[in-house]
Amino acid sequence: MGRVFSCGYDDVMTASGSPKNDGLIARWRLNTILSTAPSAVIMTTLRATGWGVAAAIAIAVSVASWPVRADEASGCQNPPAQRALDTNWPINIGQLAQQLVAYRCTDYMKDVAAAVAQADDWVRQRAPQVDNAAVVLDIDETSLSNWEAIYHDHFAYFADGSCDLGAKIACGWRDWFLSARAIALSPTLDFFRMVKTLSDRNGGKVAVFFVTGRRDEPGMRAATEDNLRKQGYDGWERLYLRPTASPGFVSGYKTDIRKDIEQNYKIIANLGDQYSDLIGDPGNDHAEKCFKLPNPFYFLPPDLPAAGLKCLSR
Fold first, then answer.
1. 0.85 exceeded by pTM
2. The domain spanning residue 206 has which CATH number?
3. Which of 169, 216, 225, 228 is the least buried, fewest Cβ under 10 Å from its Cβ?
4. Structural domain of 233
5. Each residue of 184-207: pLDDT tens digit?
6. Are the beta carbons of 39 and 61 closer than 8 angstroms?
7. Is residue 102 part of a domain?
8. 194 lies in a domain?
């Protein structure tokens, strides 16, 4: 097995309640049913809840052609049992890996949905109150799930090399990204689609910006755009990729991008799975509110500052 604690693409590796919006979580649960249940079960369920025969048939027939969703994950067909982890030092890396798989197969998607539901509530309320409203989304483990590569590599990170998930060799993340096979995280996709229906105070559409730590190297932009669109993300304002020469932690680059966006927009929400997606300058996180999605599978420094983040506490 490779190293369990690892960073994402092109960064230094380091070891290291209740939701308000029941509607968003309900939509995620329906998506889960529709993406995992046999069509006969879907038809029976929809008819029983008053959808009618025609609607039930149409949805059941279409399910066969739907893409696999992040709710269907490798390792979850027969997942390890959830057990209390012995956290006495040194922690057993094999047991930790098993519990990460168990979490991914049980509570992870519910926790993602709960975090996104808070953002959903805020953006619905705030967007009509400001001019030129904008939302910033991270991509990896925020908008798209790379679980298939994470699971295949046993939570290690390999930048280079090919990525054949059917082979018993490591999957290189650069090749994985270029293959455009990441799967939409359903709660975030629903949130994105909701944001696209909103208008700001002057009646303009709320802009959505994707800001990713993926490097802007040959082929990466086209592959990332293709992956986003194939998974249902379309109509965003701009996609930012990190320049190949960008030094230091990814948080500095992302802060600079949000400053650039603020020249013309009011960032009312920033969503990410790492604190490095949300950290800004001292005293200014360059977003009215930020929302941290769960990701125990890898860590990108820096960690949460001792003083916390203002955008999380508002």
1. no
2. 3.40.50.1000
3. 169
4. 107-313
5. 999 999 999 999 999 999 999 999
6. yes
7. no
8. yes
